[in-house]
Amino acid sequence: MQNINCHQDIITLEDVSFSYQSQTVHKGLNFSVKERDFIGLIGSNGAGKTTLLRMIVGLLKPESGTIRLFGQPVSQFKDWDRIGYVPQKNSFNPLFPATVREVVLSGLYSRNKLFRKITKADQKKCEDALHAMNIEDLAMKRIGELSGGQQQRVFLARALINNPSLLILDEPTVGIDSETQEGFFHMIKHMHQHHNITFLMVSHDMEMIRSYLGQQPAAESGKLKFYKKHSHDLQNCVENDLTHSLKELRQQMESRREVVTVGDLS
Ligand SMILES: Nc1ncnc2c1ncn2[C@@H]1O[C@H](COP(=O)(O)OP(=O)(O)OP(=O)(O)O)[C@@H](O)[C@H]1O
After folding, report:
1. 203 CB less than 6 Å from ligand 1?
2. 86: helix, coil or strand?
3. What pTM was estimated for this model as a whole?
4. Residue 130 contacts by C-beta under 8 Å, 6 or more apart in sequence?
């Protein structure tokens, strides 16, 4: 049964243009992302994908046109807790002083609450996010000491800690080994199918994009292609708590791995 309430506009791009100095990157871009869409954004190197995501999260200002988040112009938008953003892989200076736990917890301090006190409930959310991404054992390590793939998981845990309504991921699996990559896609597909989460993901993984979002893009603009799948299936999740569900999923995946291991031995 179709739920008309799930067609709220989450991201609206209206005639958006952007240039760096003299280089025009976007010109007259129009697109909208609806609630429970999964959008895969594809484009060659330099096509402007990261620039577009940075405009959507308010880090860059369009030269002209309007971007709305949940119906509000980005410049007036305040509800940043509803958005999880994982930027393209960052490499950290090994001496960067924050621990993994601190980085994950920092996902709770939105732009207006930089110095908020950490409550017990915050600690619990942090533990859940660490557990969901299978990085509890790294919690006390300095972020700069981790491998690229481990750092990606930390940033995903940081993005998940608020149970966001919109997850924006910029090539989230770069530097992650193929087994973890597969687990990651399995996890985000589950999140899309069973929770009320909207996704915008930049990826070069055409196989994953096509297998989940279909062979043809829903829209194209310049060098960008927008692949799309819309989900109505929330029926399986009694629990609304995302981290609860991720924990369950992880357990399922772990037990499947055990079965494979046992099978290999026999
Ligand atoms: N800070 C900047 N100053 C000047 N030019 C920039 C800046 N950031 C990006 N560009 C240029 O803008 C264009 C778009 O860059 P962007 O990073 O958005 O592309 P992308 O599609 O994300 O590429 P990739 O797939 O390589 O990550 C590129 O030609 C890039 O060189």
Report:
1. no
2. strand
3. 0.84
4. 100, 101, 104, 136, 138, 139, 157
What is the sign, positive or negative, of the torsion defined by CA atoms of 246, 247, 251, 254? positive
Any alpha helices (H) in the chain, and if so which ranges? 49-56, 100-105, 120-132, 148-160, 178-194, 206-213, 242-265
Task: For residue 54, give the ligand 1 atom closest to its CA.
Answer: 18
Residues 143, 229: Cα–Cα separation, whole Å: 34
Q: Which helix (H) or strand (E) holds 29?
A: strand 23-34
- ipTM score for this prediction: 0.97
Instruction: Work out the pLDDT band at 2, boundaries 50, 70, 90.
Output: very low
User: 47 CB less than 6 Å from ligand 1?
Assistant: yes
Tell me the one-letter amino acid at 165: S
Report whether residue 12 contacts ligand 1, using a CB cutoff of 6 Å.
Answer: no
Identify the structural domains of the chain with CATH numbers, from first to last: 4-265 (3.40.50.300)
CB 36 within 8 A of CB 230: yes
